[in-house]
Amino acid sequence: MKYNKSKAILFEFDDDSIGVLTAYDKLKTTYYTDGCGNNKNYSLGLALNAKNNFNNAEWGDNYPNKTTFAEAIALIPYGLDIMNHSYYHEPTGNYSNGTDIQKNFRDMDDFIKLRYNNYKANALVVPTNYTGYQIEAKNYNYLFGSSEGTFDGLTPYPSQFNAVGQINNIPVQNYTAIKRTFSDNWTNAGPQWTSLTSLFSGSNDYFEIGSHGIGDGVNFNSWIDSIVSQSSDTLLFQSMREFMEYKHLKEKVTKTEGITGNTMNIKLDYSTVVNPNISWYDLSLLVTSDKTISNVTINNNAYNLSYNPSTKLINVTKRKTIWS
């Protein structure tokens, strides 16, 4: 996994929930490391609809209990991903696109780019349980979409009935339907606690969870504190997109290496990654050698570099957040 971690939790809020702001009050100061001494704050995704079915008002335009355009954009540097949840949430109401899934999906993709500072989505959250969205996302070259139970005939991972599983069981493929769990119950009885217990027992290494809101955040904060305590810096907490784009790049980037004298040269060829919507261009490399790493350099200043001479972990990172 990224940063040589062994477990991951993927999280998003649906429906442009204002709960993302309360969550980030905690997440901005909650960290795992990149394995090389640098802190990375916990982060997540925000699944968006454009307009309200009742009055056609834009949810990001100071609508009650919704995250504004400016508030969401301000969180992108903290790892927030903006996700496609369809233009209108419902196919009925005073305003809607009816059952035209393609229009609902593609209009939302355009809306995100228009209203969120030229940000390009690459991840779907299926609205309610409506069929057709997973297939539309796949046909539109998104890499992944999540749902509690709607997969349009695609094989869901981890499985149709269990949101906790193993990343190695997801095959190499251009689109992945992700099974997620969901909780609006942020008491100690919520499914987020059950999933967490399952994650830290046995061979499971990831799950995804969604929510509409976390109330005052007190119980959410306790859940996050428990994750930090149990994980001992072995876990990623991030959006589905950041997690799955890493898997995609690891499989698609062409890596070659060679040794000249006492220098090891590694070439990462990203031209073999055909998806145009990648945001996280990150790769973690582990060098197997009985030699000591004395220095690491990179010949592309668009990428950041970190390394750990003791574990021989090297991280090459870059994030794209603005598309032309």
What's the quick description here?
The chain is of the alpha/beta class and 324 residues long. It is built from seven helices and 18 strands.
| Mean pLDDT rating | 97
Shape: globular
- Low-pLDDT residue spans: none
Helix content: 10-25%
End-to-end gap: 30 Å
Number of helices, where a helix is a run of at least 4 consecutive DSSP H or I residues: 7
Number of strands: 18
Secondary structure class reads: alpha/beta
The radius of gyration computed from the alpha-carbon positions, rounded to a whole number of angstroms, is 20 Å
Task: Provide a descriptive summary of the structure in words.
With 324 residues, the protein is an alpha/beta fold. Helix content is 23%, strand content 23%. The strands form five sheets. Strands 1, 4, 5, 9, 11, 12 and 13 form a seven-stranded mixed sheet that branches. A four-stranded parallel sheet has the order 6-7-10-8, with helices on both faces. The chain is globular, with a radius of gyration of 20 Å. The protein starts with 6 loop residues before the first strand and ends in a 7-residue tail after the last strand. The model has no long low-confidence stretch (mean pLDDT 97).
